[in-house]
Amino acid sequence: MKVLWIFAHPEQRSLNASLMREGLSELSAQGHATVVSDLYAMGWKAALDADDVRTGLREAPGTAGTARPAPAPRLRIGAEQELAYAEGRLSDDVREEQRKIEWADTLVFHFPMWWFGPPAILKGWFDRVLVQGFAFGLHGLDGRVLRYGEGGLAGKRALVVTSVGARESGFGPRGIHGHVDDVLWPMLHGTFWYTGMAPYEPFVVYGADRLTDPVRDRYARALRERLRTLPDAEPLAYRSEHGGDYDGDLTLRESIEPSAAGLAVHRIDRGRGAASQPDAEASARPAQAV
């Protein structure tokens, strides 16, 4: 495999950083090639703005005989990103990340879950890197929009590695926090699957701020095992947009599981729940920063 590991945590002494080192060591031992984008260490700019897509050539010219230039036209994010990508005008940091994606066949997104989502720096990576014309907004020869199983990143696979402070039961089918598959739905289905990447079952560390060293070590071994078996693992069986399961209004056909609803109906196997991982509730003494 050629693995791009996108890491979003500000502390190199954290639990997550130690797990990343474990993961990269395992991938190297198995003969896989790796590239790391450590977003905090890179000083990654999280905010998408006009500087990403506009140059002096895109600014409206000044009116003859006036001292002040005319204002630039209204920023239309999708269209401007697509044009800048096509014309080679995206900022250098964005284009470098796109080159890494083009090289990789597997992407690992590693982050602590903050407020039920990734840190802002990783959300900014999605906003700035997965631009229209590169990751989405493409059309097939028949004019179809390529998304949900197709798209600019089709053929690649994605694995989420994340940590949460809560116990596993709270993210279970009846847990107060919501099922972990549903919490991660915007990323697994709305970002990865939408752009064509097939997501694996996520690797979740539960009770991360209460781990003892022995439990941390069990998680490290579990992550190494996931990575050893990743080349042969099956991704989540999401339904593709053009596979025949959806009608022209992008609604699941009435003949398919007519009594079912909710996000799980968009998985062919209707499977739920992350792969079995160590019990993270074994103690109350933290081993290190999350």
Automatic annotation (TrEMBL):
Signal peptide: none annotated. Residues 1-226 form the Flavodoxin-like fold domain. It comes from the Bacteria. Keywords: Oxidoreductase. Transmembrane segments: none annotated. Gene3D superfamilies: 3.40.50.360. InterPro entries: Flavodoxin_fold (IPR003680), Flavoprotein-like_sf (IPR029039), NAD(P)H_dehydrogenase_qn (IPR051545). Residues 268-290 are annotated as: Disordered. Belongs to the NAD(P)H dehydrogenase (quinone) family. This is NAD(P)H-dependent oxidoreductase. It comes from Streptomyces marispadix.
